[in-house]
Write a structure and sequence with these properties.
Strand content of chain A: under 5%
Order of helices and strands of chain B: HHEEEEEEHHEEEHH
Number of strands of chain A: 2
Number of strands of chain B: 9
Distance between the termini of chain A: 23 Å
Largest sheet of chain A: 2 strands, antiparallel
Largest sheet of chain B: 7 strands, antiparallel
Order of helices and strands of chain A: HHHHHHHHHEEHH
Strand content of chain B: 15-25%
Strand order of the largest sheet of chain B: 2-1-3-4-5-6-7
Oligomer: heterodimer
Structural class of chain B: alpha+beta
Strand order of the largest sheet of chain A: 1-2
Helix content of chain A: 55-70%
Structural class of chain A: mainly alpha
Chain lengths: ~210, ~240
């Protein structure tokens, strides 16, 4: 953890774009940290579901990081986890209502997984490891980076699964009618296969870069 | 966070401080939730009503207006105007000339994953089910959810026979699902390979619901038909 060493020094610094960039690639929450696997595997059966889930999680992450960061001197250490859960649960409930208001169909297809954002360890880990120790500006950048990185990763899975399992991306058919869908890719097993292949790709690239 | 630091904060932070923090955060959170709930409630209710309306027009092709009825005492249907919460409502659809197209009603039953809620349209003139729509389902994507999309399966419900016996008190043949490709009679539903349980569930739900409701609806045919005609007279 490089944060630890420069903790006091970094408080004085201006928020840097590094906080934003790291979530996108170097510390990508799904492909590198392997956090929040439940929604990653469960709701990436179509690109649309993956995008909606990613954006919902990113919103909750951003809002909870802002609130945790601004209340960081007010929350005693003993009750910090309870406080974070309370804050996260609030924003998840708000997101749940908002999605139901935007589209009944979308709310139907995401089902119980919206409420389960509460226990997404990505959000709790950012609150605990970052927002509770850093300024609001840096926390916002961190949340945006991690949120976009998470959404990107979900889209990677969702696009592949929808393409192979349904022959389309965002409901736009890409293959001729004769294409035989791989139903297994839409089912839970397909989630594991796709995640494994993406992880393989990321680790291969990382290894090759560190070797060079 | 060093160990010495943690111990120090533990001893200085009193219960009052913890309580203050939790209550404070709780209040902020409660306020946020209530505001969002109040803000989105009308939109959510409107969306749900719209979804039901769309489904009604889908199961009763040619409908332009609808009226809501409930089953009263003496097994006679009566129209309701205000938004009442009733256990079972039926929706009568009328075309441009005010003629009855059919009656839509909800039915539910156990599917493969969870309770299935469907809406179907009944035409008392033809004595057939003329439309079908899944309102709520959690069936397996790619397999069980074919009951919503498979065109061959949905074609079953364009003219599904539910005609009554001569005494008009019971349906002649209960609707049921048969294996894919084995449909022989007009009251049978052609199942889906790969969605056996889900398609059979639809047949069972329809069978149970039509056995109970179709005789009642048929006996009240005139109630549904005369409502618009009475209105026309009043207007003249």
């Amino acid at each position: 953890m490089s944060e630890k060493k420069g903790f006091w020094a970094s408080l004085a610094e201006q928020p840097s774009t590094d906080e934003f960039i790291k979530g996108l690639w170097k510390d990508n929450p799904v492909f590198v940290q392997v956090l929040g696997m439940c929604p990653v595997l469960a709701v990436t059966n179509t690109a649309e579901n993956a995008l909606a889930m990613g954006l919902a999680t990113a919103f909750v992450l951003l809002m909870s990081n802002v609130l945790v960061s601004s209340l960081r001197n007010f929350i005693p250490k003993q009750v910090r986890i309870a406080s974070y859960i309370l804050i996260i649960a609030t924003f998840v409930t708000m997101t749940d209502y908002a999605i139901a208001a935007i589209s009944v169909e979308l709310h139907k297809s995401l089902g119980a997984f919206i409420s389960l954002i509460v226990v997404n360890c990505l959000i709790l880990s950012r609150a605990e490891a970052f927002a509770s120790k850093n300024t609001i500006g840096k926390s916002i950048l961190d949340a945006l980076g991690m949120g976009i990185g998470f959404t990107f990763a979900l889209l990677c899975l969702g696009a592949v699964r929808e393409l192979l399992g349904n022959g389309s991306i965002f409901n736009v058919a890409l293959f001729p009618d004769t294409f035989q869908e791989w139903i297994v890719m839409i089912l839970p097993a397909g989630g594991f296969f796709t995640l494994a292949i993406w992880l393989l790709l990321f680790n291969y690239m990382k290894e090759r870069r560190s070797a060079a | 966070m060093s160990k010495a630091n943690t111990i120090q904060t533990t001893s200085t932070a009193g219960s009052a401080k913890m309580l203050r923090a939790m209550v404070g955060i709780g209040l902020i959170c409660a306020l946020l939730i209530v505001l969002t709930f109040e803000g989105t409630l009308p939109i959510i209710e409107k969306n749900k009503a719209e979804a039901l309306e769309k489904a009604i027009f889908k199961v009763l092709p040619g409908t332009v207006t609808k009226k809501v009825f409930k089953l009263g005492e003496n097994l006679v249907f009566s129209e309701i105007t205000a938004e009442e919460k009733e256990a079972q409502l039926v929706y009568a659809g009328y075309d441009e000339n005010g003629e009855l197209v059919g009656i839509a009603l909800e039915a539910s039953g156990m599917g493969f994953a969870d309770v299935l809620r469907i809406l179907y349209g009944y035409d008392p003139e033809k004595q057939q089910v003329i439309g079908f729509y899944v309102l709520e389902s959690k069936e397996t994507p790619g397999l069980g959810d074919k009951i919503e999309k498979d065109p061959n399966f949905l074609a079953n419900f364009e003219a599904l026979d539910v005609s009554l016996k001569e005494n008009q008190e019971a349906v002649q043949n209960t609707v049921k699902t048969v294996k894919n490709g084995e449909k022989e009679n007009p009251w049978e539903v052609d199942g889906i390979t790969g969605a056996t349980i889900s398609s059979r569930a639809i047949g069972d739900i329809l069978g149970a619901s039509t056995t109970e409701w179709v005789p009642l609806l048929y006996q009240n045919k005139e109630v549904f038909e005369t409502v618009t005609k009475v209105e026309e007279k009043v207007q003249q």
